[in-house]
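INFO worker-7 received task bundle
INFO bundle size: 2
INFO processing item 0
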Amino acid sequence: MRDIKYIIAYLVPVSTLSGLAWQGAWSWLTVVLVFGILPVVELFTPASTENVPQIAEESRSKRMFFDCLLYANAPLLFSIVAWYLWTLSGQILSTAEVLGLTLSVGVVVGVCGINVAHELGHRANKTEQLLAQIMLLPSLYQHFFVEHNRGHHKHVATDEDPASARLGENVFGFWLRSVSKGWQSAWALERERLAKYDLPEASWSNAMLRYSLFQTLWLAGIFFLFGWKGLLGAGAIAMVGFLLLETVNYIEHYGLRRQILPNGRPEPVSPRHSWNSDHELGRIFLYELTRHSDHHYKSTRKYQILRHLDESPQLPFGYPTSILLALMPPIWFRLMDKRVSQHATN
């Protein structure tokens, strides 16, 4: 019965559907839920370091219930995006309603789209990998499938990784660097893969060319169906979604670096190279993404068996609060820089 708690994650899409239906002040419901209610509740609820018993991990990882929770996000994601585009292009909305709905749907694109795609993209099953790439479409961030799996996980906590924030780097500068360098890295990784198999860069085998085509067709279809308002809305929710992802990237590895060994290579990735959060609600809403140290330690572990590891550094707050604090650099630096220093000397 304790596993039923993950159904709480559906409050994000349900709140956005409510906002689309009722509009007015309800347009902001998802934003208030994620960045208002959740941070407050997490302040008064304890973090949990409890792990699934090792003997139960294998059976738990095979339970379809946990997979179905992920799969159901796909129809919700595309239904919400379609309803938003139809509402934006066909109804008269106030500026506040447009902004509220755009931010709310953008959160869905980031949480139900990119975050779930991240989990599925690490699976060995080709169908799940395909679903992951499809769910990245509304965020216009399909290159994440290439860069995250083959770039970020290899170079995490080094200066070679665009998605690992440096000590003293503010989140806004990080956005520019991570977005641009991540896209460039994905192209470089594809060129490297194609060269390995002696395949031409200008071919259907190039995932980056396919993604460019799919995303262009996605936007063209939206323009055809919903006009300029729909096109601008699609761009806006994509930006909110991928900037939410990049802010999560920012807090997950801020200031952490792997030591360079005598052979010039960085030390192996360990739980020490990702910030972890055991705050229960954030874990549920993000399908255990907040137990990020274990995810990087062994990326094939499914979300339902990710572990608390004692050696991993801990964020002082859950992800929703940490995201808000990251958007206020002076407060973030004051809160986190000393923790980075303390962790490095331990």
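INFO item 0 finished
INFO processing item 1
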Amino acid sequence: MGKLIDGVWHAHTEQTTISSKGDFVRGRTSFRDRVTADGPHTPDPGRYHLWVAHNCPWAHRAIIVRNLKGLTEDISMTVAHFRRNDQGWWFPEGLDDLQPEDGQLPLHRVYSLADGTYSGSATVPILWDRELRTIVSNESAEIIEMLDDEMGDPGVDLRPVALRPEIDEVNAWVYEDINNGVYRAGFARTQEAYERAYYPLFEALDRVDARLARHRYLVGDTLTLADVRLFTTLIRFDAVYFSHFKCNRQRVTDFQHLWPYLRDLYQTPGVGETVDIDLYKRGYYGRSPGINPRGIIPVGPVIDFGAPHGRG
């Protein structure tokens, strides 16, 4: 799908990294600055912008937290077209002096503006500083922490200090085995690599299901960033990962506690309106020639996320 090398876009350079044993290896994010009261990026209303894509689960996290923290007026947002092309992610609309040419603004132009020597993938989400005209961060986990810690409604605390050690501990294994686990299964190049992802994925989902038998949310009885991070994988699971990525031991709708939990999260104000299952299917199935060479988009499944969840 392409990548930047020394600030120059190479459209046909392989973006996905595969190990010698056939395992998918997720790339590292490179922009890791922070919004702080005493740093170069101060938390000023109207100063920041999010570059996102609706069908990307990592960007979806930032969209949800922007809603939950009441930041839709303070942080502007531009949404990519659901299907990437040889320029990678691209946007039909621009921002400030970054404007489309021939109807398209490739995301890699944003990266090159921030660092003219950058080498790597052009990924979403990006938290953009409009004043300094640079990328603050392209690491989704840190972006949502910044939105929670430094900006938005202080009455909405998604990472309470007392719960942070447990939130961080849960996030670590949920990321490794579930958030990234579905990709490790889907992009595996050998049977052994696929199974190295498949079994830990469902062990982790069983572990989550058992936690939810005791608590309404992942960490106790309050909604936290741990739930947001898990939600964006779960909401795509039955429609995409179950079949497209061969994560097919069972669906989320088959779990005793995960399924009501997912409906509970979906029905939380600020969350459900960010979901578009049909777009996810078009984005995943339509752009994976190695997995779905004919690009056929499945019609189903029909999932009623609005059904009563009966959870408090």
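INFO item 1 finished
INFO post-check item 1: The CA atoms of residues 74 and 300 lie 37 Å apart.
INFO post-check item 1: The first strand starts at residue 3 and ends at 5.
INFO worker-7 idle
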